[in-house]
């Protein structure tokens, strides 16, 4: 499942979806202008040899979340893991603004760095084996067949994720779209760098320990869709 068969070249070169929705409240707009530049990762500069150098507080390891929406999971996980530094990528303006408000309110700016664009250039910038965990939670499922090539999960991006995860680190995925869950599992099982950690049929039906939930998950459950949770370990 590589090359033109999964749209890897097109997916790597383009961002799909909206960048902005409703107008920002003045306070959120101010955070976009003032706080985001202080927390933003500048890809024009070389990545530090150790990602801990990105943060103004000492951290033992670094985790990343791609497409964090409003930041509910990112913020809750950062609060629950005070020795971990977090990198979050989110191109949608309103989601970024909401996350910035929570970061400011909870004084988490020393341990969070942000990328206000698609995750692909950020993944290419990160050093080899520099992350202890990578989250992709409720990504756009692109349900129409002609749009499957736009899905984030594919051989090309699994290669990217595998490169930046250290051995034993985890790729954690959640979705409420059964076809995308099956798609993701097929790609993981076909990739030599990953192993699915499930040992029973219930493992992928229940969220992992410490899961705080997200608004996307709540919406899916209200609408009758069943979420699934996948953990793949870097070999």
TrEMBL record:
EC top class named in words: transferase
GO molecular function annotation: tRNA (guanine(46)-N7)-methyltransferase activity
Binding sites annotated in the UniProt record for substrate: 144, 176, 214-217
The EC number(s) this enzyme carries: 2.1.1.33
Superkingdom of source: Bacteria
Pathway where this protein functions: tRNA modification; N(7)-methylguanine-tRNA biosynthesis
Assigned keywords, A-Z: Methyltransferase, S-adenosyl-L-methionine, Transferase, tRNA processing
Entry function: Catalyzes the formation of N(7)-methylguanine at position 46 (m7G46) in tRNA.
Known catalytic reactions: guanosine(46) in tRNA + S-adenosyl-L-methionine = N(7)-methylguanosine(46) in tRNA + S-adenosyl-L-homocysteine
Protein name: tRNA (guanine-N(7)-)-methyltransferase
GO CC, one annotated term: tRNA methyltransferase complex
Family in the record: Belongs to the class I-like SAM-binding methyltransferase superfamily. TrmB family.
Binding site for S-adenosyl-L-methionine: 65, 90, 118, 140
Protein's UniProt keywords contain tRNA processing: yes
């Amino acid at each position: 499942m590589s090359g033109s068969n999964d749209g890897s070249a097109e997916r790597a070169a383009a961002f799909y979806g909206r960048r902005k929705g409703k107008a920002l409240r003045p306070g959120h707009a101010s955070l976009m202008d003032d706080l985001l530049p202080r927390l933003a990762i500048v890809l024009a500069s070389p990545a530090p040899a150790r990602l801990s150098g990105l943060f103004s507080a000492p951290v033992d390891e670094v985790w990343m979340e791609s497409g964090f929406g409003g930041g509910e999971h990112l913020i809750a996980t950062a609060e629950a893991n005070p020795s971990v530094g977090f990198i979050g990528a989110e191109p949608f303006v309103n989601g970024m603004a909401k996350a910035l408000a929570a970061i400011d309110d909870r004084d988490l700016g020393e341990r969070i760095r942000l990328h206000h664009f698609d995750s692909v250039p950020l993944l290419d910038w990160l050093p080899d084996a520099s992350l202890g965990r990578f989250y992709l939670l409720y990504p756009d499922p692109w349900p129409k067949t002609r749009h499957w090539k736009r899905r984030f999960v594919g051989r090309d991006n699994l290669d990217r994720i595998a490169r930046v995860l250290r051995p034993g680190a985890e790729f954690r995925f959640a979705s409420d779209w059964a076809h995308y869950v099956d798609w993701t599992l097929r790609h993981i099982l076909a990739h030599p760098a990953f192993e699915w950690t499930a040992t029973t049929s219930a493992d992928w039906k229940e969220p992992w320990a410490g899961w705080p939930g997200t608004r996307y998950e709540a919406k899916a459950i209200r609408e009758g869709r069943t979420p699934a949770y996948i953990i793949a370990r870097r070999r």
